[in-house]
Amino acid sequence: MTESSMSMSSFFRNRFVRVIMASSIFLQIGIWVRNFAILLYVMDKTNNNPIAVSLISVAEFAPIFIFSFIGGTFADRWRPKRTMVWCDLLSAISVFAVLLTIIFGTWQGVFFVTFVSSILSQFSQPSAMKLFKIHVPEEYMQTGMAIFQTVMSIFMIIGPALGTIVFQKFGINIAIAIMGIAFLLSASVLTLLPADQIIERENITTNFFEELKEGFNYVWQEKALTILGSVFAAAGLAVGIIQPLGVFIIVERLGLPKENLQLLFMVNGAAMFIGGGLIMTIAKKVKPQKLLAIGLVVNAISMVGLGLSSSWVMVLLFEFFNGFFMPCIQIGINTLILQLTRSEFVGRVNGVLNPMFMGFMVITMSLTGWLKGQFSLTALYIAAGLLFLIGAILTSLIFNTSVHNKIDSAQ
Q: Which of 71, 90, 95, 216 is deepest in the core (most CB within 10 A)?
């Protein structure tokens, strides 16, 4: 799409936007059924073992640290539409393969479902970002990110209930089959994307490792991206601490059934939906740097609040508070990456920055089972809050970065 501007109505008439939104809906169905069905299944099988629960998250996030570099680099080399279609198709095949292993008695195969889809997402996600930069005008990037964040927020509301109901009513086998069908439907929809642009590469002699090195050099030379990487690291350490602990706030501290976790996610999702909708109305008025900092400060406050809360009502209030401002972080980060990065480096910048978040998250996530035995839930949540605060302080260093000047100079 070559127009420099367009109305919101024409934004939704954009073929790329419609297809990606439809694909996102199918993917979100598969992801949420996967997340809750596997969580409840593993907790049933292991009698709520915290190490087994944390291993689910490790299976999801550890491959990101390893494959994000590779996926981001190949996203800049391969045709993005073809990459996304094949990734969803291979995810579906892996899901049905695991279903067969579970039917024949190997329940631990559920970890493999998460592991494989996590690997493939490292190739498809930067490809989607690359297409977003190509097909969406620059002045609508932040608004577009807010719209897609709203779609994800809707599934934060209905996803936990969907996953829980599917598992409780039909069992793990049907749940995994639904995952596979959802990935297949997403792959089918993605075939309707506009054809990939064929880029002339005759004069390009760099190999994979040279292009990977170029990606690291590009991030290192751009001060704003380097600082953003540090923010990713601090946030990753924080999220890794608290990611597996939500269910233990419910089960151990409050003495409630583990199924209440779905209500916690639903409240968070409803807040994200409202917050994302608000950001859509102010997206052009607030710099993405400031959106990111606001989200990190509120996360810090929410983590401390959750760590100190001893009532279900207070937990829900802090979860709502956290969710309301969460879109500030996600929209701010994605917009900054797109606005600060030349299109030919989008995949590699994603491939460099995502491991900064995921790698540090996996480090603390892998230790969460042990940390929970050494420290109280309160201490762990306060530690996560301090790390989010550090991220906000680092973000303040790029408040005066001129995004538009960088874009102009890049072009």
A: 71
